[in-house]
């Protein structure tokens, strides 16, 4: 089971089933969604939910209106998420890290840009301490990649 918490909702995932529980104004509302692949990673941030699947798909689900956008599709399992402001980091089992810039105010227009870092080990965690550094762990090794703010 996976669990993630935002200020307005709690999301849980078991196999390919996602459940979102609203926590606004003491109203507990349940939202249920089933995917075609098992959910391997969840991440709640800024009233959005990132859902990563074993088949390599990453969806951005807007909490309030439940609209969904396919952000990324790779051939390897999604392992982890992180973010720093509008920069979102997605780790994959094949050692791929995708960095997305998402302007959340215009997500309906899919205002996305991405960069990819690649290594041959599985990405287990992604951290970001500022806009310039992306720190990630691959198996038992730690790497730091430096990227400019806009030319990742």
Automatic annotation (TrEMBL):
InterPro entries: WD40/YVTN_repeat-like_dom_sf, WD40_repeat_dom_sf. This is Anaphase-promoting complex subunit 4 WD40 domain-containing protein. It comes from Edhazardia aedis (strain USNM 41457).
């Amino acid at each position: 089971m996976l669990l993630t918490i935002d200020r307005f909702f709690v999301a849980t995932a078991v196999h390919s089933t996602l459940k979102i529980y609203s926590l606004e104004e003491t109203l507990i509302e349940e939202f249920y969604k089933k995917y075609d692949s098992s959910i391997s990673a969840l991440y709640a941030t800024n009233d959005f939910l990132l859902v990563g699947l074993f088949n390599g798909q990453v969806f951005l689900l807007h909490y309030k209106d439940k609209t969904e956008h396919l952000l990324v599709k790779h051939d390897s399992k999604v392992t982890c998420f992180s973010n720093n402001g509008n920069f979102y980091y997605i780790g994959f089992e094949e050692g791929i890290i995708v960095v997305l810039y998402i302007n959340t105010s215009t997500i309906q227009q899919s205002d996305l840009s991405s960069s990819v870092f690649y290594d041959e080990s599985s990405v287990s965690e992604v951290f970001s301490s500022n806009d310039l550094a992306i720190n990630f762990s691959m198996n038992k090794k730690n790497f730091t990649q430096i990227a400019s703010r806009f030319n990742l």
